[in-house]
Design brief:
- This protein is α+β, with helices and mostly antiparallel strands.
- It has two domains: 23-70; 76-196, Mannose-Binding Protein A, Chain A (Roll).
- The chain contains three helices and eight strands.
- Strands 1, 2, 3, 4, 5, 6, 7 and 8 form an eight-stranded mixed beta sheet that branches.
- A hairpin with a 2-residue loop joins strand 1 and strand 2.
- The structure holds calcium ion (3 copies).
- One calcium ion (CA) is lined by residues 81, 107-110, 114, 194.
Length: 198
C-alpha cells in the first residue's frame, strides 16, 4: 500500500503580514519607531560632524603651536614661509649650502606679493634660488619648478651681454626696485633662505 504524506498547500501570497490586519495600531507604532530611528541616525550624523570638526580644530591648533615653536630665531615670517636674510656675503653655491644646512633653501619666489615682501625686507641686492647653470637660457628654481612668474629687469637676463662673462645665477636687485638680474654665480652677495612653515 502506498502512503503519500502530502504537505498542506500553503499559499504565501495570501498570508498578508499580521500588522496589516491592525493598521491603526501597528502603523502608528512603526511611525514612532521610524521617527526614533531617523532621529538617532540624524543625531549620530551631527555627533560625527562635531567630532570631525573638533579633531580638525585640535589638529590646526597643534600645528599652529608647532609653527610658533619651530620659527627659528631671526627668521622673518611671511605667508606660509620663514625667511633668513644673511649678514655676510657668499657665492650662489655657498649661499645655497648655508640654507640647505638649515633645512631650508635659497628663496623660491612664487608670486608678486612674495617678491614685494622680499624687496622691502632685504633693502639690498640678494641671491634668490634661480639659476640657468644646468642649461643656458632655461631658468629653474632650486625646488625644480620652471620659471612662470618673470620679474626680470629691463634687458635681463642677458647672460653677461658678452661683456661680463657667463651669468647663470639670479639676484633680486635693490638698485632696480626688486626686479631680477642674472649675474656671475661667483659674485659675493647676501642671500635669502626660505623655509616652509610646517
Ligand atoms: Ca616662496
Ligand atoms: Ca646664463
Ligand atoms: Ca645680467
Amino acid at each position: 500500500m502506498n502512503i503519500h504524506l502530502k504537505a498542506p498547500k500553503v499559499d504565501f501570497a495570501c498570508h498578508r503580514p499580521f500588522k496589516s490586519f491592525l493598521p491603526g495600531f501597528i502603523s502608528d507604532g512603526d511611525t514612532v519607531r521610524n521617527r526614533k530611528d531617523n532621529l538617532i541616525v540624524h543625531l549620530n550624523a551631527v555627533i560625527e560632524r562635531l567630532n570631525s570638526s573638533l579633531i580638525k580644530t585640535t589638529k590646526e591648533l597643534t600645528e599652529y603651536k608647532q609653527r610658533k615653536i619651530e620659527r627659528p630665531a631671526e627668521w622673518m615670517g611671511f605667508g606660509s614661509s620663514y625667511y633668513f636674510l644673511s649678514a655676510e656675503s657668499k657665492s650662489w653655491d655657498e649661499a645655497r649650502m648655508f640654507c640647505r644646512a638649515r633645512e631650508a633653501d635659497l628663496v623660491v619666489i612664487n608670486n608678486r606679493d612674495e617678491n614685494a615682501f622680499l624687496f622691502s625686507f632685504t633693502k639690498r641686492s640678494v641671491w634668490i634660488g634661480l639659476s640657468d647653470e644646468a642649461s643656458e637660457g632655461t631658468w629653474k628654481w632650486v625646488d625644480g619648478s620652471p620659471l612662470t612668474l618673470k620679474l626680470w629687469g629691463n634687458n635681463q637676463p642677458d647672460n653677461g651681454a658678452g661683456i661680463y662673462g657667463e651669468e647663470d645665477c639670479a639676484q633680486l636687485t635693490f638698485e632696480d626696485s626688486g626686479f631680477w638680474n642674472d649675474i656671475s654665480c661667483k659674485t659675493s652677495l647676501r642671500w635669502i633662505c626660505e623655509k616652509k612653515a610646517k
